[in-house]
Amino acid sequence: MKWVLSLLLFIAAPAFSDESESAWVRGEVVSKRFFGEVTTGPKFDDGARVVVLTRDGGLVRVQLGNRFGWVPEAALTSTAPEGAATPPAGMPPMLLPPTE
């Protein structure tokens, strides 16, 4: 059983690296579930820190916890809002405690 857990952690480790690009949402944004489709996805609140997964044609695929969606590039900024939480080294952004 221990080797299974070790294997899972080894596989998931790249997802928790410090190399992930982070961005912050500007304004409340309702994402699109699929690229080029009209199906709505999850809503991301103003100031939410998201992980950038990929960019394509002015849209950005982002992740916040277990929520994924495509948002316009203009809805994101690389500058953290005043008072934004910054994770300690090695802690993935999606595991940050919620801020008030």
Provide the residue-averaged pLDDT.
Answer: 79
What is the assigned CATH homologous superfamily of the domain at 17-79? SH3 Domains
> What's the level 1 CATH class of the domain at 17-79?
Mainly Beta
One letter per element, helices H and strands E, the order comes to HEEEEEEE
Shape designation: globular
Characteristic key phrases:
globular, 7 strands, 5-stranded antiparallel beta sheet, SH3 type barrels, 1 helix, single chain, 11% helix, 100 residues, mainly beta, two-stranded antiparallel sheet
Topology:
Blueprint: H1 2-12, E1 21-25, E2 29-32, E3 40-44, E4 49-56, E5 59-64, E6 67-72, E7 76-77
Antiparallel strand pairs: 1-4, 1-7, 2-3, 4-5, 5-6
Quick structural gist:
This protein is mostly beta strands. The protein is 11% helix and 36% strand.
